[in-house]
């Protein structure tokens, strides 16, 4: 079974990424990153941009 829904890339204040259905309201604390498309396209975008999995607050603390 393939997923043919439309998704969007979202991120939270800690700059952690996820995908969310494009036709649903975003969950509290998340904002749209700007990319929308198939599940695979969104996951590929996240793979490109989320190269450091540490939350932003931890990255800042360690800097």
What would you note in describing this structure?
It is a single chain. This protein has 2 helices and 3 strands. A hairpin with a 4-residue loop joins β1 (7-12) and β2. With 63 residues, the protein is an alpha+beta fold. The termini are far apart. Helix content is 29%, strand content 30%.
Question: What would a concise description of this structure say?
Answer:
The protein has helices at 39-49, 56-62; strands at residues 7-12, 17-21, 30-37. The chain has 63 residues and is of the alpha+beta class.
Largest sheet: 3 strands, antiparallel
Strands of the largest sheet, in order across it? 2-1-3
Structure classification = alpha+beta
Shape: flat
How big is the Rg? 13 Å
Give the SSE string: EEEHH
Tell me which oligomeric state these chains represent. single chain
Q: Estimate the strand proportion.
A: 25-35%
What are the key terms here?
63 residues; three-stranded antiparallel β-sheet; alpha+beta; 29% helix
